[in-house]
Amino acid sequence: MRYIDLGTTGLRVSRLAFGASSYGSRDWMPWALSEDDAQPHYRAAFEHGFNLFDTAESYSSGLSEEILGRAIKRYGTGRDQVVIATKVGLAKGEGISHGLSRKRIRHAIDDSLRRLGTDYVDLYQIHRLDPHTPLEEVMLALDDVVRAGKALYIGASSMHAWQFATLQQLAGRDGLTRFSTMQNKYNLLYREEERETLPLCLHQNVAVLPYSPLARGLLAGSRRHDTERSRVVRDFARPEDEQVVDRVIQVAAERGVKPAQIALAWLLHNPAVTAPIVGATRAGHLDDAVAALDIALDAQELERLEAPYLPQQVQLDRNVAPTPGQTASPDVLRLFRR
d(Cα 186, Cα 174) in Å, to the nearest integer? Predict the structure, then answer.
């Protein structure tokens, strides 16, 4: 394993992050692994030197956090050697508070800490923006969590670049904690983050933790006609996507490596990318991911891999992410007028 600074923080994290979304209950996802079946993958992750683990309150309704917490105690070498990242904002809540309200976050962090079996998380991320809560309140709530010692750093995920820039500016204006990381969808089949978000993060030295680095397995070349995951791979169904996958397979064959390794190596060459989030549901998944760290693609290979891609519509969860017309509060408008 190799290690890298997490943006402007004082943390050194593994060059690959371990994603825990596939562990929990089949009620969450039909291919989710039980806690017993997840154990070999957690053991392998620690043996490979992973130290950054990513989960969320919404994964299997919190069961993923519980499994991760127990795995860290079982296989880890101490809480001080592990970087725990979890997320808030997509769990289906009921009652008087919205997904990212100050009240909701106050209770959500305590629930996550209880499930993880720890008294703090290293990175607390908002899973998506909440169109019902003013942006100022979101930043105040996250700052509360940091000042209470329940999280060391905060992160964001999947939003428009203008929204992320606004949140960072609000934090700077009001002396609040700024985001240290951005977790967004980025892979050879979805490169729209290259337009604005990645340059913004690179400019501000915000660590980028891409999720779905293999496009739900399509870039591994083994799931092109998989009906089990047809619902979640629908975002990668363009004819151009097939051409990109073909190119990945070609480059991999020429090098004598697996397509997944080429797809990850392509991600890792980007200076904006800190640690792609990889998952494991089968033996060998982590071996392949770690092997990608030793692959240095040349300029010709990079050009060949990127050539078939055509721009597409930005993919955001429209149910929870504000559109450009949904400004959070009048104060945000005043911010832009300054």
Answer: 31
Sequence letter at residue 322? P
Phi, psi of 163 (to 5 degrees): -70, -45
Mean pLDDT in residue range 34-60: 96
Closest CA to 285 of 61, 95, 19: 19
pTM: 0.90
Active site residues: 59
**Residue 163: CA count within 13 A, CB half-sphere:** 24
Mean pLDDT of 288-301: 97
Instruction: Judge whether 37 and 297 are in contact, CB under 8 Å.
Output: no
pLDDT score of 77 more than 50: yes
| Distance from C-alpha of 14 to C-alpha of 16, rounded to nearest angstrom | 5
Amino acid 28: pLDDT: 79
Using CA atoms, how far apart are residues 322 and 131, in angstroms rounded to an integer? 5
The tokens describing 300, both together, are 């010709």
pLDDT above 90 covers what percent of the chain? 79
Query: Is there a contact between 107 and 296 (Cβ–Cβ < 8 Å)?
Result: no
Report residue 88 as tokens. 């808030």
What pLDDT does residue 337 have? 33
Confidence of residue 235 (pLDDT cuts 50, 70, 90): low
Cα 277 versus chain centre, distance? 6
Query: Average pLDDT in the 65-91 region?
Result: 95
- Is 15:268 a contact under the CB 8 Å cutoff? yes
Which residues lie below 8 Å from residue 122, measured CB to CB, with a gap of 6+? 11, 82, 83, 84, 85, 151, 152, 153
Give one DSSP letter per residue of 181-242, joined into a string: EEE-B-BTTB-GGGTTHHHHHHHHT-EE--B-TTTTTGGGTS-TT-STTTTTTGGG-SHHHH
Backbone angles phi, psi at 208, to 5 degrees: -105, 125
